[in-house]
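Researcher: Next sequence.
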Amino acid sequence: ANDAETLKTTLAPLSEVLHAYAEGSKVHELNFIQSLIEAYVDVEKLFLSQAQEDSVILRLRDQNKDNLAKVVQTVLSHSRVSAKSSLILAILDEYRPNKPNVGNISKYLREPLRKL
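Model: Next structure:
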């Protein structure tokens, strides 16, 4: 049983890669883009509700007293909102429905795009 556990632990990274590509590279690509958009929305929605960034940062700090690294990551991410927005727009431009060889992306990107 111990050998089986060791083998399972050793093969876990390979298993994760195989699982990520199980439906093909195009689906993996679209899932990755979906996760980028969702991460963008998750950070930026925190800063939409209040005009003062300081108050958002203080609230984040109070909510994450045990995980200040998360606060720092969130604030650093938000500080690059312009670059992130440009990246999202560039990605979306590459996946316009009327572009050749794009395929049916709505299955993967419809929900994250609604959040934008």
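Model: The radius of gyration is 19 Å. The mean pLDDT is 90.
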